[in-house]
Amino acid sequence: MASTSDIRNGLCIKYNHDIYKIIEFLHVKPGKGPAFVRTKLKSLTTGKVLDNTFSAGHKIEDVRVETHKYQFLYAEGNDFHFMHTENYEQISLMRDILDAPDLLKEGEVVMVIVNTETDLPLSVDMPASVVLEVTYTEPGVKGNTATNATKPAKVETGASVNVPLFINEGDKIKIDTASGSYQERVKE
């Protein structure tokens, strides 16, 4: 058993007969009344996100998990196939439990969280950012750089990302996997 002081991002807990992963949390100490923790929980079975508030000192049941490195092999419909990097065991996961499936490139190494009690995969943690090549984008208009203007661009995985006007086809860009937004152009 854990308490609200143990809450952190990525913690997996049992709540309402389901397993949830804490995406965001905020300890709040109002001037009047007791302290509480405001959380955003993501269900690891359905993928739904819900907001919940725990009072300070509330007991929560945490789930013992292990993380393993897996390499993304390929996608087949809604099934994503991964291979363990040490023992080469392959697993197949549904698209719903992935945080950013559109940004997943073949060969990418991700961390898979596995429930130690049941040995079932719970969720997939993407790297903080990925580098992808732009496969299609409209050419930028010269002289239109005074504002912070963006244009849509398609990357090699098929995802669409808003990029600055100076980005062209063939450029490699770094994308934040949490928000799916452009970070910077990568020179190689």
From TrEMBL:
Organism domain of life: Bacteria
Localization, UniProt: Cytoplasm
Pathway noted in the entry: Protein biosynthesis; polypeptide chain elongation
Entries under CDD domains matching the protein: S1_EF-P_repeat_1 (cd04470), S1_EF-P_repeat_2 (cd05794)
The Translation elongation factor P/YeiP central domain, residue ranges: 67-122
SMART domains for the chain: EFP, Elong-fact-P_C
Molecular functions per Gene Ontology: translation elongation factor activity
One of the Pfam families matching this protein, by short name: Elong-fact-P_C
Occurrences of domain Elongation factor P C-terminal (ranges): 130-185
Keywords, in A-Z order: Cytoplasm, Elongation factor, Protein biosynthesis
Role played: Involved in peptide bond synthesis. Stimulates efficient translation and peptide-bond synthesis on native or reconstituted 70S ribosomes in vitro. Probably functions indirectly by altering the affinity of the ribosome for aminoacyl-tRNA, thus increasing their reactivity as acceptors for peptidyl transferase.
HAMAP family registered for this protein in UniProt: EF_P
Family (UniProt): Belongs to the elongation factor P family.
Protein name, as recorded: Elongation factor P
Gene that encodes it: efp
